[in-house]
């Protein structure tokens, strides 16, 4: 064989090898990540302790899959019948997936579980599972009280999957342990070893490990005197963790848990997210170095309320598979992104395949584009602006692997709710100084009414409202109370020729007062509670819901308050103290619950109050009249002012204030209702997911109040 021929054969062989190598080389999934999968659970009820999935194209905006229902039933995979804290991981081979969850039903107690569930899948749809009960599996675990929040990471050095989780034994604090899973991911190879404990010997739970530049960052919740998330760092996965700093990394003062980190597909950094479990919210922060974190909540949207979950990047093919199995047209059409849409008031009717969009004042409905946010493997047409002014517009949704669906989309300008977002207990003011209207509400949308700040909103026409920002923040501005910022009221007074604004508010079931020179603040708290105890003879109820009223006949100002009772006292001229000798209670009938409102018309004092509980769909307003601001109150037989209207989906109409247009016998009721349309589906949570509305209020010839019908349309702009 000639040298030239030998060289040619060698070149041919090399080319064949390269060809075979190219054909057999697997493309790294990292090169094809195009979406994200969010695994989470939703609450502490047994029906909510289930694994749910949501999907996103950008890592910030998620829609629940399977209509928000579980992707697998907890009863089928667990000992207790409930699972929590799902952690999902892509295997080292790029095509196998692992999920671990806490085997627990919280109703049985926070120290009631001993097990976790190990799950495995090759398609994200079908999962095998095994329960690992630590107490049964390993000897010497008699003092074990609980096993919480397992997570999995691949140990490249050991070539095994390491599961880490917290455990508590006896009276000792929770610590983080680890063990390797067996080859089939059905059991632990050996008894768990301690991985980390908090240096201050406090409970240490909810570990989450992120790897960056050869270092392992362990995020964990420390339950010391100021619970929060901290970070420990090590060069070794299985030990040697040292505190990165003594600082917390959560960017909120609200309680948090369940830290979860994931890399963004565009390479711009990491997301650290965590469960604000007392607020009913989830916060997203962004970081490049796992040291400095910036809140990105304004970029985040979800149509579900997650609890302690994790996010994993997925490929286009995986996203298609998930959408084919669990995606739905309403997931797309219920997620319009136009800034002209009232985001929390979109109604999706799956029976009639219709979406109702409530748009803001001034929207051009003759050329309007809802701008539906697309999900993976989904298209929507038409994609351009359409004429919504006369009829519904037909949209066709295509999800790869499913039959196309045609839906009707209706867009309508509604003026209720008047404020964008969750707010309640509105007090309304017309300022002679600025010639504007103001609403002062409770900031709502927090679990258990746990908001800690107050905002103000201004308008010139009662329809278009400007957010004036936070005017009182309990955490910053108030020394005597730090929780439950509720039900404020305000009055404008001239003091020595200058306008002053006296703002009465509830905090920690006490009533305080702050003062400003402008209706939008800044307000300065007086440094102590104005009311912090019950009137003499009152046994139940709460010291909440202040109402301030100046009698136009005498010029005297009065403060009313109370839940379960109605109290009143005359204010001193300084408006920040009470004439204690005038303090008394006013008798009302059994319908009185809270939210007193007083106004004067044609020689008559009108007293309004809320009946029932704000969590009830039957929360409503009643009234009585008097010849004095101190009562007694005469209660008419037909004294309902406003109540629910099931025919329009309006419920929980209560806690109002009243506005009279200056110089006119023209009146408006400003009140809150359940969020429309979801509130009525939320159970008791509807009571802290409320929104503010305005409707006109009219009187009969005899001075009685005509019952108000609550509307979505609201009022027309004042001229």
Automatic annotation (TrEMBL):
Q: Which InterPro entries match?
A: Glyco_hydro_43, Glyco_hydro_beta-prop_sf, Glycosyl_Hydrlase_43_Enz
Question: Per its UniProt record, what Gene3D superfamilies does this chain match?
Answer: 2.60.40.2340, Glycosyl hydrolase domain, family 43
What is the name of this protein? Beta-xylosidase
This protein's UniProt keywords: Carbohydrate metabolism, Glycosidase, Hydrolase, Polysaccharide degradation, Signal, Xylan degradation
Q: Which GO terms describe its molecular function?
A: hydrolase activity, hydrolyzing O-glycosyl compounds
| GO biological process terms on file | xylan catabolic process
Q: Does the keyword Manganese apply?
A: no
Q: Which family does it belong to?
A: Belongs to the glycosyl hydrolase 43 family.
Keyword presence, Signal: yes
The residues the entry assigns to the signal sequence are: 1-22
Q: Name the domain of life.
A: Bacteria
